[in-house]
Amino acid sequence: MVPNQNKSLQVNHNENNYSTKNYEEAYRRSLEDPEGFWAEVGSVVDWYKPWDKVLDNSAQPLTDWFIGGQINACYNAIDRHIKNGKGKKIALIHDSPVTKSVKNITYDDLYEKVSLLAGALVNLGVVKGDRILIYMPLIPEAIIAMLAVVRIGAVHSVVFGGFAARELSARINHATPKIIIAANCGIEPNKIVRYKDILNSALDRVTEKPKNCIIFQRPNMEPSLLTPGVDILWSDALSTAKPHPCVPVEANHPLYILYTSGTTDKPKGIVRPTGGHIATLCWTMSCIYGMKGDDVWWTASDMGWVVGHSYICYGPLCAGLTSVMYEGKPDRTPDPGQYFRVIQDHKVNGLFTAPTALRVIKREDPVLEFGSKYSTKSLRTLFVAGEHCDHETLIWAGKTLKVPVLNHWWQTETGHSITATCLGFGHNLNPPMFSAGLPFPGYDVRILKEDGSPCQLLELGRIVVKLPLPPGVMSCLYNAPERFINTYFNNYIGYYDTMDAGYADENGYIYVTARDDDVINVAGHRLSTSALEDVILSHPDIGDAAVFGVPEITKGEIPLCLYIKNKNCSKNEEEINNEIVQNVRDLIGPIASFHLCASVQGLPRTRSGKTARKSLANLASGKKVMISSTIEDPLVYMNIKQVLQNLGYAKNAPDPEIE
């Protein structure tokens, strides 16, 4: 489909209090003078050799940035700060309630361990361009491994520690790593996850074995048995190595491969270019997040996800900040006051988390019995992303933490924000309700109909971005060039297809309502699941909710809501059901055909905080559901199946099975 080549969203920012002249000028230049604008952004990091050309857009949709420039990500994350006299500064704070330990790691400490591990990898025959797979929990050694890999020009692929052998083997088969770096175990609130056993099982399945595996045995935990001739202890690898210097790479050399979740049969590996990515990330730490100097930054995520790559590791470290790594849960390690404690103990200035974590804390500690024990006065701003944040949770978090709560939107593919409220540009800290911010420089965001014609303001459509894409986004899918083009660029020619649905307002703000396949079509009317969830979550007795479509003979499909009641809720389920049905009728209208709702014990959330709505819809429709190993608690499906059957759905559905 060839979209109508309409101009960028035409709005008058000067007549509102949301935008600023600095933002308007930067955004305009990023689209009209990309070479000049991004050359300035590129200068925030250090280069061994300047680029010959800022932009090569001759083979769209492929775009190269900073062509010919020589750079190293590890140098920018560690070495340059030490050369500037900041070696004693704390780079990482590892706060681990599951091991009852806190560890501070300086930039000097990082340099010592990273350079030795880099030397160990070279001793094992690793050269520039080799793939190294990392399978570790949220521990400092995961970041040390990542930085050691890129220090020598190799390419890391971090696999989320919660993945089982089947998913892990698929990624090993696809990436064909020369070396695997793994921990012996991960620690959950009620169990030990034996990574080494999972790795052994995965290696039994793969067709091309790695040369060696470097195994980090976690302190005070039962050590794993090593495989003779293959496994090498982390400590032994470092003790026999010499520090290795950084190896310069061309700006478009791959930094890493990151596999998106749910792609076991056909792994989809996002390839990230080095130069544009670390330059943009470094800039966003001040431009979007307002971090500077001695600020302490905390991204509550995992290294297996893009948020961990961008904003636990590369962004804050390249900017010379202190980055917090929290190995725990929002509520169960040991209580729902832990986010407040971490902010107090480490004087956190900026926090980035998923809305799910906030909903869990709100549900489990509604009167702040635990949270009120701690002071959060150091915190200036809270950022949320990863899924839709309902207004009720956003307001609660702002009042509780007494800071602006800012929603922004980005994807694994982009590596940083597509839309945001940017502190560095002086954006209004009270953006319009439900918005995800203004388009970030470099993203020419459009809202299109299925036929490619432009949507009107406030009209729901497909969110796309006019090419070229800015520096730092994915350069390709690993070993899948045709799939790369077909997935992202063939639906709307000349545009990147985000596959998200949303709309724009008269002030230029973007509203992301759902993945486009989460939109429910009720008798021809497209309804966003997030809009319905916003209304439902405004009920004071509901702590979490998921809305999805179920079959209906006359309307095609209608919405069904499963929700979790707050602690200390005194109302019965029938009362709550009647009230939320009425609320939806009042605020959305009869058009929603909303009357199906029920309380459940839990909802299927991935460890990155996303709701597995599609699996719920499939279960309700009687289809077989395979539970991804990224789901936090697979047992919730059995209760959900029973509840759905009580509502007249999932009658002949087989029991969900774990992949």
Automatic annotation (TrEMBL):
Superkingdom field: Eukaryota
Ranges of residues in domain AMP-binding enzyme C-terminal: 532-610
GO cellular component: mitochondrial matrix
Pfam families: ACAS_N, AMP-binding, AMP-binding_C
GO molecular function, one term: propionate-CoA ligase activity
UniProt-listed Enzyme Commission number(s): 6.2.1.1, 6.2.1.17
Acetyl-coenzyme A synthetase N-terminal domain location: 23-77
Main EC class the enzyme belongs to: ligase
Catalytic activity: butanoate + ATP + CoA = butanoyl-CoA + AMP + diphosphate; acetate + ATP + CoA = acetyl-CoA + AMP + diphosphate; propanoate + ATP + CoA = propanoyl-CoA + AMP + diphosphate
Domain AMP-dependent synthetase/ligase: 86-476
UniProt similarity note: Belongs to the ATP-dependent AMP-binding enzyme family.
Protein's name in the database: Acyl-CoA synthetase short-chain family member 3, mitochondrial
Provenance organism: Sipha flava
Gene name of this polypeptide: LOC112688319
